[in-house]
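name: query_chain
kind: protein
chains: 1
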Amino acid sequence: MRIAIVNDMKMAVEALRRALLSVAGYEVAWVAETGAEAVRHCAADVPDLILMDIVMPEMDGIEATRQIMAKSPCAILVVTASVTHNVSQVFQAMGAGALDAVSTPTFGDGQGDEELLRKVKTIGRLLDANGRIPRTRAAAAASKHDRWLFAIGSSTGGPAAIAKIISRLPADFSAAIVVIQHVDEKFAPGLVEWLSQQSPLPVRLAKEGDRIEQGVVLVAGTNDHLYIKPDGTLGYKVEPAATPYRPSVDVFFDSVAANWKGHCVATLLTGMGRDGAEGLLGLRKNGLFTIAQDAETCAVYGMPKAAAELNAAIKILPIDAIADSMLGYMAEHGRVRARYE
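structure:
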């Protein structure tokens, strides 16, 4: 795997270089000290993966990620000295197309190498056969009670897409919302905090034994898979253990089809890979309303593309139209306070 390093700190560059070169098959493609330099390098030589710092002179990692994903897309892992102190910037970068984030290993003692290499290995498994993220054009049904669930699955670019949807919902929204976003459990609390700033509804982590609650956004919060149990409560499970998609959208969508007793609108948003496509198809076959994000507004047109190829989505919509479509469907099919504007 050819991996580029973008960081203005020489010690950080050396720590990253040493960690990468300790693994057979990894090589450093190039090094850039600023975001602008990274954009230029990437235009000339697209690597398999970029380790992107956030805070840099001239152009920060957020804008560099945005420009690279629009012009020369590839996998991007945010590597920053303090993830906890840069939560907002981390999720802005993920919204622009970064896959994940990790703290910079310590130079000299190798502390942090293991976590970095684990995430690099996982991203390597997600890459397609050509080692590239696909280029996008823009950067039997359950009984129907008056209970509504809006299920959202997303990956690369997902935080920003989710924020756009939930920010358009009314404060008296009468459906429950469950979000399955591919994100390391270490960053799940930060994601919840960040989404809370965008949402008129309360946002919190889903816990084992929780019940899906009207007017509340629940976010999958561990590296295990969130699912609905037969008794209607939420739980987490390790299996399927082999899937690189954690938490898995397919696992949650399958549990909705099997165990949710009510109405449901399910949407599959931007992301690399195929997670959620089969699950969305299962929901459509069960008579539920399904939506996939369109290519033009995806950071990475992978998961929604897979859903479109399976004919799993009743509607394929730009991100700004998804909330209104959901509200309109709810207003037409149930006695709910879904304000449709």
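note: Confidence is low (pLDDT under 50) at residues 135-145, 335-341.
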